[in-house]
Fold each of these.
Amino acid sequence: MDSEKQGQIDAVITWVDGNDPKHQLKLEKALGGKSRKKIPGADNTRFGNANELKYCLLSILTFAPFIRKIFIVTDEQDPNVIPFIEKDFPERVNDIRIVDHQEIFRGYEKYLPTFNSRSIESVIWRIEGMSDNFVFFSDDMFLVKEIKPEDLFVQNRPVMRGTWLLTPVLRKAWNSLRKGVNKNILNNHDFQPKPSFHFGQWNAAALLGFKWRYFFSSHTPHAVSKKTLETYFNENPEILENQISFKFRHNDQFNFASLTYHLEIRSGNTNFAKPIFSFLHPYGRKEGYVDRKIKKCVENPEIKFMNVQSLELCNKSDQEKIIRWMEGNLKA
């Protein structure tokens, strides 16, 4: 398909620097004296930073030059990306814009500050001046090979990468049992299960009337139609407000990408694609893990996306190996 008919495509990256003292003070105030251990969504790794944003951004500019604008969403922080953009892509400096939480939470400022990726992602469609079609990245997602608009949108509708799974009945039962034990036996009324990637996606499907199965999307960039979300939340403002009311990730929330996909499916979109990507979680792995992952990524021409989780926690040698490979891949 002629890419011009796809329309403009923008990119959105969510980012936080958890080492920022101002951010840490906000976080401690929001905790209200509670231990982070009692709030799963407040884990340190939720706010980790190992300069992934640089490589996420450069990978988009390198392998998806058709992307019109890139919006970096953050909370009163400066990711300081201009110096390396000026060095490698000086012609694209004006295509990068920092978006503060105040902009996307306009009208809902009472829920700020927030430390909840699920809440933040649910309002990124409210970025001013963004194209109707956009692709969402968390800062630990990267492009590793050239992509085309058709990898993201076909006939002006999002491509959905994932697979169908059955309703997580056992997980639901286990969570209910744990809640009951903690509340009625251990007298731990603050207990909540750790927010689950699977359960957040099921919550989205169930919200839209799916009963027996759900479309499980992977750790890849997600193509999104702004109009689809805008229409849904304008018709269901209470759902949006409940979603963004949680300051920390909560097991009752839905996964934003999953909601967009199930809305698309419900409206007849059948642009399904295999979830072919490279997933790295290098922390605590045995020697050779990173080498095997990189080798697989290089040798498989179908792998165009990479997700590296908790890079800041893994040993220095593996960190340097991953970064060195990404830098070389960008210049190849």
Amino acid sequence: MAPERITGRSLLYYLFLSLPLFAFFSSIFIGPFHINPVQLVDLMASKILGYATDYPDVYSTVIFQVRLPRLLLGMMVGASLSVSGAAFQGIFRNPLVSPYILGLSSGAAFGAALSLAFLPGVSIQYAAFFFSLLAVALTYFMATTNRSTPIVSLVLAGVIVSAVFDSLLAVIQIAVSERALQSIVFWIMGSLGTASWSKIYGAFPLFALGCTVMLLLRWRLNVLALGDEEARSVGLNPEKYKIIFIVSASLAASSAVAVAGIIGLVGLVVPHMLRMIFGPDHRTLIPLSLTFGASFLIVVDDFARAGLGFEVPVGVITTLVGAPLFAYLLRTTRSGGWE
């Protein structure tokens, strides 16, 4: 019986790794403008090989300027949030941790609101990214004492920093015009509707850097999850690797939030669900979070842009889908994948 269980788990593991391919090629056909597989292949080949087609320009515009950037950005954002969530859950040894625990989302929201309201010459993406990292840095330095960063201190510092940036955001919302307020609220909801190649080019280097570091060092999360004393007993410097993972996860999550706004529950539900299915080993959990997170978000976005006949911010749908799913998983699994 044991070999069959191992084989089944292995097949499931590789199936989850391949999900982005299935999600991508099914999602690219979803939308009010109908394009069939033959047309898609012809358009893609013409773009790569440089020959002309008989299709109207609108076909090329829909594929290469609307759907393709949105799908790629959605995959990048979903992967970033999920991998960051898995890393933070390992560092904090808590399955209820999300990438926003250190104040990242509050800082990003303040930065975006500041740009929308008072700094029209400053890119929303760069303002959100800068203030999200500033919030994480403030949290870390506030929690660090005597070259040590206790987990409890990090959590409390994150609460403080989040509260400060939330208050500053509230001040901006009170002071701005109704039009600017609508833009701020829509950005905070989280959406992939403004996807573009420039956003992908701007966010991809930081996404790639953060995720690559977490993938290469993922086995060390298994040691960190045991506690600082246990990590030192096997020769691992816990403070050093906490910094590495916090910086890497924050870079990836900040790049995602900067281009898509605050998309809730992806970084909490996806790694938690995968941990329940595959166990707590970060050697498999991190790559699975990368692939399943990417697939999850673009599938949810398919429904957000086409399921109701009008577009809904994807952050709203992830919360509506993720909350009951998370509640079900908590009810059906006692250990939460930590045992």
Amino acid sequence: MSNSLRPLKITIVGDGMTNCFLLCYSISSRASFENIKSKWWPEIRHFSNNVPVVLVGTKLDLRIANSEKFVTTTEGRRLRKEIHAHSLVECSAKKKLHLNTVFEEAVRAVEKKPKNKPHQCVVL
């Protein structure tokens, strides 16, 4: 996501109605992967600490085995654990691979999220 979209993103994050974030990076771009941890994850935690996250690696069709240029599944799993994301899904819009899984995992993340306890009123 470019910095030009940042104000829109902040508005959405701060609206109190967000149920789940899909944090996306391109498997073919280490910079986008590193931005998850250094830029987008801290911002989400700042504005919406209790909203679940699904980590999504895009452009799966471009990955070439044993190429250091591409983000590996192992690296994605490590980041998922580090940021406490609900899950990691790698997908390809071009090849239509695992697209449904992205949204299924988002639903699972929302369903798994603990419900807020109702406020109690105590009269003394």
Amino acid sequence: MNALKERALKTKGLLVAASVLASGSVLAHPGHEQASSFMTGFAHPMGGLDHLLAMVAIGLWAASIGGRALWAIPAAFVVTMLLGGGLAVAGLNVPFVEQGILLSVIVLGALVLFAKRLPTAVCVMIAGGFALFHGAAHGMEMPLNANGLQYALGFALATASLHLVGLGLGQLMTKIGTSSFATRISGFVIATAGLLLAFV
């Protein structure tokens, strides 16, 4: 009888150990880790109103200027944002990150509101300067167990998608003939939201 009890206990122990090992191997599977890292990165810009507003504003601003700015401004933002993320992950300090992000929402909203047509090179520098803060924020908040490349790919793709939303809205407003008024209203809403976020 005692032998049967001992065998049953051993069997249960082996089953528990096998379950733990199996669940661990599933969680540690590279495909799952990469998918999780990518989705975490993709969700990060979408989950913050400040990030979301600034990135849509980039698209609206580029659409209002047109020409080379249509691709140059969003591209500069994404590339410099990745640089900022890399600096943060490497442990290099980017100062005034939160303030820089909030300032980007206000300034980009104002640029859309007042329809500022600056030289493309200046626009690229403005976009890149603000992107550094957004990228640093993404990098600082990357989970310790995340795959850095997949995480970066996720937030870069999300950012580009939000730029495309802004570009699409800008192009749509131009097509239906309400570009000037509707774009300015959009800029006003974004800049005002940035001011509110700064004081909330």
